[in-house]
Amino acid sequence: MNTWGNKIRLSIFGESHGEAIGIVIDGLEAGTKLNLENINKFIERRKAGKSSFTTSRKEKDEYKILSGYKDGYTTGAPLCVIFENTNTISKDYENLKDLLRPNHADYPAGIKFKGFNDVRGGGHFSGRMTLPLTFAGAIAIDILGEKGIKIFSHIKRILDIKDKSFLDFKEKDLEKFENLKESSLPFIENDLEDKTKELLEKIKLSGNSVGGEIECSCFNLPIGLGNPFFDSLESKISHLAFSVPAIKGISFGIGFDFANILGSEANDLYYLDNNEIKTRTNNNGGILGGLSTGMPLVFSVVVKPTSSISLEQKTVNIKEMKEDILKINGRHDTCIVPRVLPVIEAIMALAILDEIL
């Protein structure tokens, strides 16, 4: 199914080269003011064409609100939003009907949907489907912001270029983190941006692509959000994270580094700060037993390299059932990591909002 959520229900629809893509958001309280300026600014961060290493497909990403909105406020009816696709070049995908694209969903989707699935631009599996999800996330971020809850993300790693972690900061430095939203390549350490641009340009010229790691953090959360086991806060965030194409891994706090240390090093020890209970470290990323602890919620996701590359690749021709060579045309990102950042902030906000309402 294409629906998620308990108190907030999200349903996405459309395909990359169809007439439009969109989302139905159900459960927003009537009278919620939509700050369209903030929504537009947030969507802009995900937009293509902002650098030479993103896809040259330049969609306007303008939306139409079809229902649930009047005079600047939600009405209580389902909020339905569409984004029309206006810059498609479907002929680039004419040779893909019979040739399986490595690392794409073509093969399993073709089997599941009996060959009726739309492969143009990835169809319903396209990263373009994260655009309506970003719209919903922008609303959630505004609602949380009114409660003092702040969400930030940055590029943690691309190949051997590695940034600091939110966990490295003992005190909240929210003003420093706010600046991350203004950069096309957001790093906590500013000197990494130029180095990364040079790397991505080289990879683009080689016809290849690269992935990376994104870290996201949420500050000023109330204590006790979430549930044990099936609806743990980690489960909820992970469920949404893996709905984002190209996400192949997730970890909370220091994540897989727990395998390298002893319990005495892993435990986050409590102390009193002006009669407020805090922990001296935040190895668990602000979640214990599936519940928020009040410490910053920190998680990282791994983004695989863009699957469509211009290098020739070996594949199978499913019409003739023989091995073949594939040369992909079309417009693709050398690295999608920068454009995924607002999407990860969006899914964090939506997971938290679904708990808070």
TrEMBL record:
<protein>
    <recommendedName>
        <fullName>Chorismate synthase</fullName>
        <ecNumber>4.2.3.5</ecNumber>
    </recommendedName>
</protein>
<feature type="binding site">
    <location>
        <begin position="304"/>
        <end position="308"/>
    </location>
    <ligand>
        <name>FMN</name>
    </ligand>
</feature>
<dbReference type="GO" id="GO:0010181">
    <property type="term" value="F:FMN binding"/>
</dbReference>
<keyword id="KW-0456">Lyase</keyword>
<dbReference type="Pfam" id="PF01264">
    <property type="entry name" value="Chorismate_synt"/>
</dbReference>
<keyword id="KW-0028">Amino-acid biosynthesis</keyword>
<feature type="binding site">
    <location>
        <position position="331"/>
    </location>
    <ligand>
        <name>FMN</name>
    </ligand>
</feature>
<comment type="similarity">
    <text>Belongs to the chorismate synthase family.</text>
</comment>
<comment type="pathway">
    <text>Metabolic intermediate biosynthesis; chorismate biosynthesis; chorismate from D-erythrose 4-phosphate and phosphoenolpyruvate: step 7/7.</text>
</comment>
<feature type="binding site">
    <location>
        <begin position="124"/>
        <end position="126"/>
    </location>
    <ligand>
        <name>FMN</name>
    </ligand>
</feature>
<dbReference type="GO" id="GO:0009073">
    <property type="term" value="P:aromatic amino acid family biosynthetic process"/>
</dbReference>
<dbReference type="GO" id="GO:0008652">
    <property type="term" value="P:amino acid biosynthetic process"/>
</dbReference>
<keyword id="KW-0521">NADP</keyword>
<comment type="subunit">
    <text>Homotetramer.</text>
</comment>
<feature type="binding site">
    <location>
        <position position="46"/>
    </location>
    <ligand>
        <name>NADP(+)</name>
    </ligand>
</feature>
<keyword id="KW-0285">Flavoprotein</keyword>
<dbReference type="GO" id="GO:0005829">
    <property type="term" value="C:cytosol"/>
</dbReference>
<dbReference type="GO" id="GO:0004107">
    <property type="term" value="F:chorismate synthase activity"/>
</dbReference>
<dbReference type="InterPro" id="IPR020541">
    <property type="entry name" value="Chorismate_synthase_CS"/>
</dbReference>
<dbReference type="InterPro" id="IPR000453">
    <property type="entry name" value="Chorismate_synth"/>
</dbReference>
<keyword id="KW-0274">FAD</keyword>
<comment type="function">
    <text>This reaction introduces a second double bond into the aromatic ring system.</text>
</comment>
<dbReference type="GO" id="GO:0009423">
    <property type="term" value="P:chorismate biosynthetic process"/>
</dbReference>
<dbReference type="InterPro" id="IPR035904">
    <property type="entry name" value="Chorismate_synth_AroC_sf"/>
</dbReference>
<keyword id="KW-0288">FMN</keyword>
<keyword id="KW-0057">Aromatic amino acid biosynthesis</keyword>
<feature type="binding site">
    <location>
        <position position="289"/>
    </location>
    <ligand>
        <name>FMN</name>
    </ligand>
</feature>
